[in-house]
Amino acid sequence: MSHLPAPTPVRKSFWRALLLTVLVAALNVALWAFLNRPVRIADWSGEIAGLAYNASQRYQDPTRGIFPSEADLAGDIRLLSQYTKRLRLYQSSETPQVPRLARFYGMKVMGGAWLDKRIQHNERELEALIALSRKYDNIDRAIVGNETVLLGNLSVQQLIGYLDRARAQLRIPVSTAEPLDTWQRHPELIRHVDFVCVHILPYWEFVARKDAIGWVLGQYQAVRKLVDDQGFPDKPVVIGEVGWPSNGDRRKSAQPSLADEAHFVREWLNVAAREKLDYYIMEAIDQPWKAANEGLAGAYWGILDANRQPKFAFTGTVIEDPEWPWKAAIASLLALVPMFWFARHFIRFRALGIAFFLALIQVSASILVWMATLPYDFYLDPLDWGMLLLLFPAQIAIILILLINGFEFTEVLWRPRWLREFRPLPPDPAERQPFVSIHLACYNEPPEMVILTLDSLAALDYRNFEVLVIDNNTKKEEVWKPVEAHCAKLGPRFRFFHLDPWPGFKAGALNFGLKETDPRAEIVAVIDADYEVRSDWLAALTGYFHDAKVAVVQCPQAHRDYEHNAFRRMTNWEYDGFFRIGMHHRNERNAIIQHGTMTMVRRSALADTGGWSEWTICEDAELGLRLMREGYDLVYVDEVMGRGLTPADFTAYKSQRYRWAFGAMQILKARWNWMTSKTSTLTRGQRFHFLTGWFSWFGDALHLVFTLMAMLWTLGMVLAPKYFTLPMYLFLVPLIGFFISKAAFGIILYRKCVPCSWRDTIAASVASMGLSHAIARGIFLGLWKKKGEFVRTAKSRRIGKKPSAFISVTEELLLFLALMAGIVGMINSIGINYVEGKLWIAILAAQAVPYASALIGAWVAHRSGDAVG
Fold this sequence. Notes:
- This protein is of the alpha/beta class.
- The protein has four domains: 17-36 and 322-414, no CATH class; 51-299, Glycosidases (TIM Barrel); 436-568 and 593-646, Alpha-Beta Complex (Spore Coat Polysaccharide Biosynthesis Protein SpsA, Chain A), CATH 3.90.550; 698-863, no CATH class.
- 52% of the residues lie in helices and 9% in strands.
- Strand 10, helix 14 (477-490) and strand 11 (494-499) form a beta-alpha-beta unit.
- The protein is elongated, with a radius of gyration of 37 Å.
């Protein structure tokens, strides 16, 4: 017997990845199967007593004068004759051919005259009904008016006039059709009809399907008792409409579904046969045109769909979506390759993490298949199609954002360890210390703040360094002169330059400093004017530059003096999340964002690649990308080596994030070919992070677009409900899921990685969401405009009187108020009885959260401001 060689680790990882992939794909199929599990219902093999019949075909609409041809009608009658020998009609003048065609197939007809507020139309309908009834002997009953009193089209006395005229001219029984409450409110109608025709539709009365049959029987008994009490025990009671829709809005406990329709109809047919009830099922064929007047459910009452196909069988089990197997198969196949690729490449993650992200990929694929097949399951009108065409690309963008956030979530939570993790190094001997030129660019900064920074630099435990203070374009001498004097006091290694005028914003000042740098300098270090550095900053980090491939060593931004200021505290922890989570995630693939403080750059690499870019207002991030393209390594050391100040107020906080978003778009436009070209020297990981790292910001931009669209649509629904209807709930559920998932990812990662309390976590979330509008504006203007203005982030304010709390968030306030008005308008006009209405209100509320967060942030900043007089 031969001995097989032991599997290699590579082979083990292959089979482990394959097993996890197949397992998740199989679970996907199982989920589809569970959601579409067969429902066992009592069989029905007899003939249906009667069917209510509206003749319109799939794309026809009688309200617009679009009627079926005789060939259409003949096809319908032939088909329906297989189910019943009795039809109920609602009108006589539009399709007068039906009685003749029905007679050919041996079918009886309950004729109808549709009455409304149009007097001439009513006369024409009544005359047509009388003429047809005299002509065709298979018309054995007549209904004059359908829910005419309920709809307020005619008064009771007017309706009685039409009934009396019809009864005088016809030799067949005549009635009108109304629900029970109309007969109860107007029992005088009973003496003017030959039989009582009642509509009993439990769905419209919020009755759960499981209770519907008993409720219908109860309604029938109430009608029977009413007729008997009025002294007409011999007058028959006919149920003119009874049924259940297969789709539409949930009405409290009443949930339309294909399985529920099949269950109700089949159970009703058995009960009605046992009780010997006279009825017409509502209805024979789905009528999509009714959705405009009756809501979504109005289109789905038929036992046949609008394409004249049976929606369910009358024997055996019923499946909600009979097409689910091929949809599940396509979703699994669509996700198979991405899932296996991820599992294979990240097999080092813990199994639970791999399974989580594979499930996220699989769910995303299933949502895409589900969205793509919606038109096959619903009757979409032009507005629905427009909504679908708008939302489908947005759904893809949302799924991409969710997958990108999910990847970060998975790697941070379920990695065994970071592959690229850097710590402070033991200090070099003095003779091996590379010379460092520290550049501090400042503009209109409070001199006492800059002096504090300079004093911390003077205390560095390092021998070979210089400090260049470059003040660019500060106008007031009382601001920059004290800094110049302090540099002179600190000695010759501190050099001060005042530039006025000087182009290029911060990048221009740093390029000037690069020209003035000591020739001995091997490293250029950059800090902001508000930072107080640790004495071992240079000593603990410059050792990384002994590796010629290292071009950047970056420490996190960190802050001081925030503990007792509510606004500075919430912003401090908001910043901290990126450096504890996002930077580690990017560092794994040598793709960190270089930010403009507490950073060291190899001087030769900086000079050889063109210095600091003055065409972008995010020169630091652009430099990092440029150095990666040249093949250098960037090192992220998650050790706080210096602390600065958070923005002074919400205006400064917003301004900084706007600048970052605007600059990111400048970089994206200018360096697009670096990230997409096949010949790019950037690695796949670097391209991934620089292409997708801003996707969350694109999510903010999409949020603004959705908000404006939602407000316009809401305005349309409130003011012009005839033309604007609620989007189908299936379009809305993924959006709600996205909001919830994104929030959950952020909070869970914060609790795992950021050393702050639950209260600080919530406050940081509020601060982050409050920046959404500023980021959206930065994204759109960055894509539109070529140049942006570098706006200094104020770290302190010197003002005598505080401005209004909300002066910095005027646009956010207006958007918030508009969304609140939309919610109130929805509640007052459409209400909350429909699932779609509730979901739409929930979406408006979710869209309002970032704007509410901005208002909260501005108020907290106002209340906790440290302005001095």
